[in-house]
Design a protein that fits this description.
The chain is α/β, with parallel strands linked by helices. The chain is built from 15 helices and 11 strands. It starts with 6 loop residues before the first helix and ends with a helix.
């Protein structure tokens, strides 16, 4: 890995004066120029604004000041995070020309930390998808093999880091949209505890599930990024008002004495190559001193079913605001009702329409209790089951994705096959607990496999601690020549 791929090394170098933020930026812009046409990680690259930000960082250093913990680090932002005066499209025609009048909280925190925003990344429209094939502006391709998808919905953010376009990017995770593309692109991806990172300025998909988190090359960089963006925000009513721990403090401690849970009733579906890597991850942690314990999470198997009622229901409510009246696309028609219909028909893609219809049906009179109400009860049971599991284990390990990256078009004809990509990630969104994907060896066709580390609410420190040990073990695995 080049020093220019490490957010921690870049920030340390810029703060000390050994590196210039403008030079770091130009290095990454050159990489974008070389491969962006091939990969399409970005909906928009904001090179001129980034150059101004980088120059401002260098000026602070030259004056003897400290620009912040992410000084000069290029960062890519998923295109559903509001950036003042910069198009924020959610990869949808209905918001193609919309420029927010304010910055989201995460965007503001990154600016204050000295990071340099380099562009807005592509996504499945309104974050609805697992392959970034649903973007109104064309798909993103996996930098490791451009015939394959990068995962989704934050595929552009994952691809930007994997391609070296930025050492740090941010996505949103509603059902696995950070962890699954992180696995498919071979990078680290973190979904924090719900409420740990402010959602103010994140265009809503499903408000009780959405959470912002980072993509990086290393666990240490992920810890640094979380230190910057986590914290209480009065603009977000769900924001947690708890002191922040030092997320980097335990990374070198190892896992001696920790209990790592193996879910014995985990839903089947992981490909053999992925399952083999998960077993090797358990073995590596045991060899490092952890105790592997068997736990049961009976409601895990119902997560996918509950999610695809709750998330579309919330989406159908959130997306009702796109009506052609206040902002976004407007298709003129003879009357208001016809204008609503024409605008939404032209502005929304097929997957978004599918989920709006599912959600509206689940919330409709006569079906609310049978579908939405029952899904909420399953969500409660799932939280109870995970609480029992965490009474026996400090963290849990599962696959991040059932498979390695797959070819374009291989799942688009069967929405349910695509939904199954999120089998192992969805439960953490339903419970609100943190989860992250760590690259751990390769599987079929030498493509990366991601191991998911799950922890109880506010358990990011121990989650990162275990992830760091897996990262060390993965290095040994690669050095040993395992395929």
């Amino acid at each position: 890995m080049s020093p220019f791929d490490s957010a921690s090394e870049i920030a340390a170098g810029v703060r000390s004066g050994d590196l210039k933020a403008v030079d770091v930026l130009e290095q990454h812009l050159a990489r974008i120029d070389a491969r962006e046409t091939e990969i399409h990680a970005f909906n928009l690259v904001i090179a001129d604004a980034a150059r101004q930000q980088a120059a401002a960082v260098d000026a602070i250093v030259a004056a003897g000041g400290d620009p912040g913990p992410l000084a000069g680090v290029p960062v890519a932002l998923k295109d559903n995070m509001c950036t003042r005066g910069v198009p924020t499209t959610c990869s949808s025609k209905i918001l193609a020309d919309w420029k927010p009048p304010y910055d989201g909280t995460v965007v503001s925190l990154l600016q204050r930390a000295g990071a340099v925003a380099i562009g807005k990344t592509n996504l499945d429209e309104f974050a609805m998808g697992s392959s970034t094939e649903n973007s109104a502006f064309g798909p993103t391709r996996n930098p490791l093999d451009t015939d394959l998808v990068p995962g989704g919905s934050s595929g552009g953010s994952a691809a930007a880091v994997a391609a070296g376009f930025a050492p740090l990017s941010f996505g949103s995770d509603t059902g696995g949209s950070i962890r699954q593309p992180a696995a498919l692109c071979g990078v680290v991806g973190v979904k924090p505890t719900y409420g740990r990172v402010s959602r103010y300025g994140l265009v809503a998909f499903a408000s009780s599930l959405d959470q912002i988190g980072p993509f990086t090359h290393t666990v240490a960089d992920a810890a640094l990024a979380l230190q910057v963006v986590c914290g209480h925000d009065p603009h977000d009513s769900t924001s947690i008002a708890e002191p922040l721990p030092d997320y980097s403090a335990l990374l070198e401690r190892g896992v001696e004495g920790l209990r790592v849970g193996r879910i014995t009733d985990l839903p089947a579906g992981a490909d053999p190559d992925v399952a083999e890597r998960i077993e090797q991850a358990f073995d590596a942690l045991a060899a490092a001193g952890a105790t592997i314990v068997d736990v049961e999470v009976p409601a895990f198997t119902y997560g996918l079913t509950a999610y695809y009622i709750i998330a579309p229901a919330e989406a159908s409510s959130n997306l009702a605001r796109y009506d052609g009246v206040r902002y976004g696309l407007r298709v003129d028609a003879p009357d208001t009702h016809a204008m609503y219909s024409a605008t939404r028909a032209a502005g929304f893609g097929d997957e978004v329409k599918r989920r709006i219809l599912l959600g509206t049906y689940a919330l409709s009179a006569g079906y609310y209790d049978a579908y939405y109400g029952k899904a909420l009860r399953i969500r409660r049971l799932m939280a109870d089951d995970f609480a029992k599991a965490y009474a026996q284990a400090d963290v849990l390990l599962t696959p991040s994705s059932p498979s390695v990256a797959f070819p374009f078009g291989s799942k688009t004809a069967d929405p349910f096959a695509m939904y199954l990509c999120d089998t192992y990630t969805i439960p953490a969104n339903l419970t609100g607990e943190p989860g992250m994907s760590v690259p751990f060896g390769t599987g079929q066709n030498d493509l990366p496999v991601g191991v998911q580390v799950l922890a109880p609410a506010l358990g990011e420190p121990v989650m990162l601690q275990v992830a760091a040990e897996l990262e060390r073990a993965a290095t040994d695995l690669t050095a040993g020549g395992a395929s």
